[in-house]
Amino acid sequence: MKIVAPLLFLSLALPCIPGHAADQGSAAVTELGQLNGIALACQQPALVTRARNAIVTTAPKTRDIGETFENATNAAYLEQGKGKTPCPDGATLASRIAAGEKRLQAAFPKAQ
Asked: Whole-prediction pTM value?
């Protein structure tokens, strides 16, 4: 039992360590997927389009990224649909998506 807590802490802290671009990219894709699911459930079609376009135009086109985005979208949509949390207003959701876009761009900078 004493070993579990430090291992859990390390597993949670690892994605935050700089230099783990793949982890940062996965976290950014997951975040935008979650926001996309919330936007879908809250009937914010413009924000759904914005989140999806951020992934399509910024992240590499791989199966893993697509599946990560879709799985996060589905989970967030289903969770929002339970009605336990109210839908955020459009401005709040838009600002959260903008922040997610910046993290995605930092994780996947365009080659120059």
From this structure: 0.78
